[in-house]
Amino acid sequence: MTEVELITACRQGSSRAQKLLYERFAGLMLGVCLRYLRQRDDAEEVMLMGFVKVFRALEQYRHEGSFEGWIRRIMVNEALGQLRRKEPLHLAIDDLTYDVPTTAAEAESQLNADDMLALLADLPAGYRTVFNLYALEGYTHPEIGELLGISEGTSKSQLSKARAMLQRRIAAANTVAVSSTQPKELYATGRY
Amino acid sequence: MQPEDIDKLFRQRLQGHAPTPPADLWSRLEAELQPEKKKRPMMWVYSMAAAIALLLMVGAGWLLRGPQSPTTGSETPLAATETPASAPASVMETPAPEASKEKMIAQATPSPAPASTTPEARPAAATRPQASAPALVAAASRPARPRSAEASANPTTKSSFTDVAVVRPPDAQPERTQAAPAPTTPAQTLVASATPAASSAAPVGPIEVEVRRQAETPAALAAAAPDRRPRLGGILRQVRNAVRGDQVNLADAGLPETLTVQARVAGRTLTKTIQL
């Protein structure tokens, strides 16, 4: 069944088609939701509610752009809503700047998807959200500013802070892998 | 490592990342989608049920409240009297010059005399404000008649009263008492049908003055209608009246008091409604 056929069948209320559509996108969308939400339960809840919205809004899908992108946008919006409820976006500017250690390429290659998700989950909600929207969803800073109700400049600064923190942690993970000497984890001081 | 590199790294590793969702998530989603499907038919069922119930209620009210004995209906002591002297000349063209309009109203108000004969009629008569001097005058002006028969024929006194005074010219039968057994709404039609029969006796043609007075006194209500049913019945009856094109009597439905004077002179009908 092609995507168009599947959408048509879902619009007609076919339960079987809905299940097929769900199965086709559930894994990917859970991956999206997990990037935004720290807790797996929350991510699953968001995915569920996202799919409910997808099925209810299916009539409005105009076959413009990819269907996956359309679903993804719904999921992202749902995730942002959940974040506002669960983890208020701490967009406070972190003034501390650190020297970013250069990381060996090998260390990066060792990280799998779950490690990356864990790194993201450790980020403050604001950093994580901006990084997700910019680096993984491809939103621009003006778009992010509008989505989150922040200025473009704040979005930019959040992004650079998020990047710096991630780099540091990847380096840390690498260092842990190489030796037992561990640099002080400043983010763990509760200052974010 | 450039800042953009870390974006790329995450994108590469996470773009196609599709963890397996828990197995029960689909059933939860299905349950979530289900109410949406069922909501509309259910609303239909509810609205249909409500409409049917309403129709049944109206129908039952119609059947129960319609052609019925006067005891259950909230109607009308109907005193049909022919008094040559009490015909008000101002309202209708009759050869009864000495009668005044005031007297006519007084006539319309059931006089205490018949009311006192029936125990049920008493509280309603007592609560009526107009049952005072003019009424007494009117009653006194009338010759003594077996009026108790009329009153006993109309044992009900409820929140509304319809007093029909059929006034005849003097050359008609001098004293004729019509005791109409006041059913609920057919009372009006009964009186109307009774009039042509009387017209054969009267050469000038009958002049029928119908004064309908709706009293909404709490005491009268309490005495006559202890429960709400007569009120509901009254409303239903008024609805039926409206459907038939009859006079809608708002007082029966618990609305302010009105006084309707309707005079039928041979073919002409004069109607005057006074909101008290």
TrEMBL record, chain A:
It comes from the Bacteria. Keywords: Sigma factor, Transcription, Transcription regulation. Residues 21-86 form the RNA polymerase sigma-70 region domain. Pfam families: Sigma70_r2, Sigma70_r4_2. The keyword RNA-binding does not apply. InterPro entries: RNA_pol_sigma-70-like, RNA_pol_sigma-70_dom, RNA_pol_sigma70_r2, RNA_pol_sigma70_r4_t2, RNA_pol_sigma_r2, RNA_pol_sigma_r3/r4-like, WH-like_DNA-bd_sf. CDD domains: Sigma70_r4 (cd06171). Residues 115-166 form the RNA polymerase sigma factor 70 region 4 type domain. Belongs to the sigma-70 factor family. ECF subfamily. PANTHER family: RNA POLYMERASE ECF-TYPE SIGMA FACTO, RNA POLYMERASE SIGMA-70 FACTOR ECF SUBFAMILY. NCBIfam families: sigma70-ECF. This is Sigma-70 family RNA polymerase sigma factor. It comes from Hymenobacter guriensis. The lineage of its organism: Bacteria, Pseudomonadati, Bacteroidota, Cytophagia, Cytophagales.
Automatic annotation (TrEMBL), chain B:
Residues 1-23, 68-163 are annotated as: Disordered. The chain crosses the membrane at residues 43-64. This is Uncharacterized protein. Residues 74-90, 106-143 have a biased composition (Low complexity). Keywords: Membrane, Transmembrane, Transmembrane helix. It comes from Hymenobacter guriensis. Residues 1-10 have a biased composition (Basic and acidic residues). It comes from the Bacteria.
